[in-house]
């Protein structure tokens, strides 16, 4: 699976959009970009994923650059409950075995009132 | 409500005293997995199961056992716990290896003295 690079931390004002960048310059053609988040010591929570088109769901939007070497997760109206560590993961949709998720360092997002 | 449950949520035990952490999901998922999370080491897969009576080792299986006698349950067994198994444990499930998302339980914090 391709390696990802994320800023270690960022702050965001409550009610404003939070834009979380992720670099994955070694991504290959069959690898998806996934985003999970983990609120302090809780189980990781799936947010969104995409291959090359931009995606949107009730939680967030995912913007993937045309060359697919980077992406941005957008939380449109951050709330205090969005304070968490956000993980960008690049992997194939199908794994031969294990289906394991490998989380890197992530971005620690602090939403401030 | 669709969910993955784990019990207990917190456990303090002593070296060598056998323990079991239960995991149950109500989504009829085929795939289940156990992870441990330690500071600086991220999430590491211990064991996984692709269906009833089918289990396999993850990255860090030493000192752990699992069983999958029913589709909904996937207990993690520590036959002789040691202090290096002090960790935060997560159970996860998904529809199968092709599933796009994994659903995580709330976590079990284990301290082995």
Number of helices of chain B: 0
Query: Which structural class matches the secondary elements of chain A?
Result: mainly beta
- The CA-CA distance between the termini of chain A, in Å, is 37 Å
Q: What percent of the residues of chain B sit in helical stretches (DSSP H or I)?
A: under 10%
Indicate the multimeric state. heterodimer
Low-confidence stretches of chain A: none
Shape of chain A: globular
Q: What is the residue-mean pLDDT of chain B, rounded to a whole number?
A: 93
Main beta sheet of chain B, described? 7 strands, mixed
Could you give the order of strands across the largest sheet of chain A?
1-9-8-3-4
- Output the radius of gyration of chain A: 13 Å
What structural category do the secondary elements of chain B indicate? Answer: mainly beta
Describe the global form of chain B. Answer: globular
Helical region count of chain A?
Answer: 0
Task: Output the helix-strand order of chain B.
Answer: EEEEEEEEEEE
């Amino acid at each position: 699976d391709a390696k990802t690079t994320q800023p270690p931390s960022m702050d965001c004002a409550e009610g404003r959009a939070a834009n979380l960048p992720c670099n994955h310059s070694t991504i290959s053609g069959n690898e998806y970009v996934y985003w999970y988040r983990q609120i302090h010591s809780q189980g990781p929570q799936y947010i969104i994923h995409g291959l090359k088109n931009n995606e949107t769901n009730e939680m967030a939007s995912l913007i993937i650059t045309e060359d697919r070497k980077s992406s941005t997760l957008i939380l449109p109206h951050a709330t205090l409950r969005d304070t968490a560590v956000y993980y960008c993961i690049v992997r194939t949709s199908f794994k031969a075995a294990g289906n394991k998720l490998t989380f890197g360092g992530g971005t620690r997002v602090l939403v401030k009132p | 409500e669709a969910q993955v449950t784990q019990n207990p949520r917190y456990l303090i035990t002593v070296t060598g005293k056998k323990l079991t952490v239960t995991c149950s999901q109500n989504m009829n998922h085929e795939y289940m997995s156990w992870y441990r999370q330690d500071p600086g080491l991220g999430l590491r897969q211990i064991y996984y199961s692709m269906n009833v009576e089918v289990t396999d080792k993850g990255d860090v299986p030493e000192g752990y056992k699992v069983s999958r006698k029913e589709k909904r349950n996937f207990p993690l067994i520590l036959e002789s716990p040691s202090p290096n198994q002090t960790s935060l444990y997560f159970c996860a499930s998904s529809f199968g290896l092709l599933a796009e998302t994994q659903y995580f339980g709330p976590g079990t914090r284990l301290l082995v003295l």
